[in-house]
Amino acid sequence: MVESLYGLQGERSKLRGELRLLHSQLEQKDRDRHSRIQAFQQQIDELKGCIEEREEELSRLRTATGATDSEKRVLCLSAENESLKQNLSVTQGLLQQLSTIPSQSSTMLLKVSHTGNGGNAADGTNGTCDLSAQENENLRSRIHQLELSLQQRSEQLSHLERQSEQSEWRRGEEVRKREDRLRELQLELDREKGKEPVVKYVTQTVEVESPATLKHLSKARQRGELLSEKLAKQNERCKQLEEQIRKSDEHSCNLQHKIAAYEREISKLREELLTEIGHLEEKREEAVKAAANCSPEHFQNLQEQFFTLQKRLTALPPTLRCMKTDYASLRSQVRNFSSFYGAAISDAKKQISAAITEMSEANKDLLEKYRKEVALRRKYHEQLVELKGNIRVLCRVKPVLKEDQQHDEGQSVVVVTTDPNNESSLGVLNKGKVRVFEMDKVFHPQATQEEVFQEIEPLVTSCIDGYHVCIFAYGQTGSGKTYTMEGSVENPGINKRALKHLFGEIEQRKDMWSYTVTVSSVEIYNEVLRDLLSKDGEKLDIKINPDGTGQLHVPGLRLIEVKSFQHIKKILATARRNRITFGTQMNQHSSRSHALLCITVEGTDLATGSKTTGKLNLVDLAGSERVWKSGAEGERLKEAQNINRSLLSLGDVIQALRARQTHIPFRNSRLTYLLQDSLGKGSKTVMVVQVSALESNVGETLCSLKFAQRVCKVELGPASRKIECG
Ligand SMILES: Nc1ncnc2c1ncn2[C@@H]1O[C@H](COP(=O)(O)OP(=O)(O)OP(=O)(O)O)[C@@H](O)[C@H]1O
């Protein structure tokens, strides 16, 4: 019994050990189950998150535009969502089942503890062991079922994941398409923007010709001209060098041709030589053969022939050598040609620079001589002007024009005659009598503008030398004063020609003198002074210069520095525009004011630094006709009276000057007052009296000529002027 009891106890402890093992196994399974439940729970959470995302996307798509694709996509996603939800509920149910299963290990422990409480229930021990084995079996099958179900869920889950991936991919596709569409729209927008605008804007450029701009412009132009000149010179030099290179190329080409010809000749000669040697060898062979058979005389002959041939043969190599050396020297010539060419050019350059220095030395001498010549010329010129008289009166007869004939109602009778053999007299037929007037010079009606200017030219030159010069055009309205002074565009008068001459002289003297030319222009109308170069035509006054020199000046008068003849053209045009013109019975475009163009030339001797200031006053006087004939009344009458008064004052001043009176009545008119420093002592004056040749103007012609004669009549120094009066 005791033995069997011990046996049972051993069995029981064995069973207990087995149960403990089983229990630990079950515990392990429990832990696995828990971890699977947790994984499940996690997957469920993820599924929930995925469902939420899908729902969000669904709601987004629902709010998006009603595109058919989007609608389809919404439906698809809804169906997917539904199935996902079903899957989720199934999974949750399963999970709940799993959660409600009691822990096998705890049951087992309970049972183990029950069995451990009393050792007296031996029958019960076996029964408990069977029950636990069955339960274990049940649990195993349950766990197996659960594992199968878990596997199924996992498969479902992976299926759902795949579905989710697919829907994600579709969504990505959708987004990509939308982005593509957006890009297309952007491109279209850019294209639209890049198109020409329908409305075009008009841009206008406003040019402002400020004096500073003009000055800069003229400077830039001069610089441009200088640069173009330099460029032209460089181009010329380039052309020369190109020509030289071309010639050198030609030369080198010729040399190469020659070399080629030589080479050909040499090879030909070599061939000839070889063939001849061959022939000779053959002949020699033949001769040797024949010698054995022929007579001694024949042998002698042959020997002689052989010797001559040998001589010829010996003469050939030197020729060949000669040709070879020729050929080699030609080759070296060609090779050395470039260096030789460079050396030749540098030689030429040296020669040129030497020639230039030589020239500049010679130029210095010439310049010195030229200076002396200029001084001498100036002296002679002074003497000439002195001889001609510092106040000269010239007369120009206006040709009869078509317009004059219309005024004269067809009776264009000419009463003024000039003598081709006597350049200083003219006759006027009046009341059957010819009255002869003597002037310093008379220009016949066909005299050209150039001829008139030639008479004035020396005075213009003396202005550059520092003299004050006045040139007046005097005469009745329409007699050609403006024509003589201003002229037309095609046929310019004294003003333009004088300025052109002035700038020409300045250019010629530029190596010795530097000059500044300033210009002003005024008109005197009804004894009022106006600036013709100013736009507002403000009234000006003549005042004593406050610098203490006692000289006169006009405050506010515009003085323009002129750099070129082109510039002066613009200034003259402005002055002409501003001049007051009115129509009268005598001349449709009669100028009723005195117009003055004042040119100041300041010179500096570059060698000595001494300075000169010359003035040239070019005056186009107002018409000198008598008041009654101009049909003037009211304002016009006042105008004519003023004109006549100032002309009279001018006559008085010139007469007083010519008579070398102590008092010169400069202040009697604005005109003479303004010209005071140019009419005084040491100045030079020319009066061009304009007359009409027509009988209808004979009265005015006589008046003008009498005025001219009054000026001329005064004696000059010891030599008196002989004037014949009719
Ligand atoms: N020598 C000439 N050769 C050709 N045409 C001339 C000549 N002299 C004058 N004329 C013409 O006669 C017309 C009048 O001349 P101009 O205007 O010069 O006269 P004026 O004396 O200046 O008159 P005003 O005192 O009224 O200004 C102009 O059309 C001009 O072209």
Automatic annotation (TrEMBL):
GO cellular component: adherens junction; centrosome; cytoplasmic vesicle membrane; kinesin complex; microtubule
Record-given protein name: Kinesin-like protein
Binding of ATP, residues: G475, Q476, T477, G478, S479, G480, K481, T482
InterPro entries attached to this UniProt entry: Kinesin-like_fam, Kinesin_motor_CS, Kinesin_motor_dom, Kinesin_motor_dom_sf, P-loop_NTPase
Lineage of source species: Eukaryota, Metazoa, Chordata, Craniata, Vertebrata
Recorded family membership: Belongs to the TRAFAC class myosin-kinesin ATPase superfamily. Kinesin family.
GO BP terms in the entry: microtubule-based movement
UniProt-listed SUPFAM superfamilies: P-loop containing nucleoside triphosphate hydrolases
One example GO MF annotation: microtubule binding
Bilayer-spanning residue ranges: none
Coiled coil recorded as keyword: yes
Compartment(s): Cytoplasm, Cytoskeleton
Record-linked CDD domains: KISc_C_terminal
Origin superkingdom: Eukaryota
Gene3D superfamilies attached to this UniProt entry: Kinesin motor domain
Domain Kinesin motor as annotated: residue spans: 390-714
Protein species of origin: Tetraodon nigroviridis (Spotted green pufferfish)
Residue ranges that the Swiss-Prot or TrEMBL entry lists as coiled coil: 37-64, 136-290
Keywords: ATP-binding, Coiled coil, Cytoplasm, Cytoskeleton, Microtubule, Motor protein, Nucleotide-binding
